[in-house]
UniProtKB/TrEMBL annotation:
The protein's name: Protein-L-isoaspartate O-methyltransferase
Cellular localization per UniProt: Cytoplasm
Stated family: Belongs to the methyltransferase superfamily. L-isoaspartyl/D-aspartyl protein methyltransferase family.
Active site: S73
MF annotations from Gene Ontology: protein-L-isoaspartate (D-aspartate) O-methyltransferase activity
InterPro entries: PCMT, SAM-dependent_MTases_sf
Reaction(s) this enzyme catalyzes, per UniProt: [protein]-L-isoaspartate + S-adenosyl-L-methionine = [protein]-L-isoaspartate alpha-methyl ester + S-adenosyl-L-homocysteine
Main location: cytoplasm
Amino acid sequence: MNREPRLSHRGIGMTSQRTRERLIQRLYEEGLSDPRVLEVIRRTPRHLFVDEALAHRAYEDTALPIGHNQTISQPYIVGRMTELLLAAGPLDKVLEIGTGSGYQTAVLAQLVERVFSVERIQALQDRAKDRLQELELRNVVFRWGDGWEGWYALAPYNGILVTAAASQVPQALLDQLAPGGRLVIPVGGNGHDQQLLLITREEQGFVRQVLDPVRFVPLLSGPLA
Ligand code: SAH
């Protein structure tokens, strides 16, 4: 796939190519190995996904606040989850739960055919939409809704990626996974006991692999804000 985001000149001083190269080198050393994923992280301007006051930290391998008690995920975990999703081959339809800043969405949009992204906080979703438009990434459709329900009308999906920790795997997401499809999801409480899971839908049923310990904000339910 060849969807290069438009280069932006905003904040270019603080976000020099060298700073970005250092991040890519670090992600490689930490174990990311898919060259397509590393290349997409290299060319995606993460500084546009955080407040200008934090732009100088955008190429550190760390989560950062994006308002509404939410965070933009750490680049390593964005890369790791994307690699897991893509490991079995190219994907045409991917459902993302938890758009947040839209950074993970932008990374996915450059690697798969179409992304469907659900977010429960409308203000975050509006900003994410603007950013993806600015980057001319047009293969993304957004929905304001509750990720526990997935996006039934457009199912099934070859890949589903959840960027907030669920207390358990939502049944709706399992139901909306296509045969051979892959679900990458952090599961666990609001402390240090979360695990990243990879669930694949095979002919005989769901196969569940427990991967890394992780730390995400919770997948909330209830009224939308
Ligand atoms: N991938 C995002 C991470 C954002 S943090 C980024 O890199 O910016 C997790 C996001 O999940 C938050 O925006 C939060 O509002 C959203 N979220 C939490 N519970 C949700 C739910 N039930 N449905 C949809 N989105 C939810």
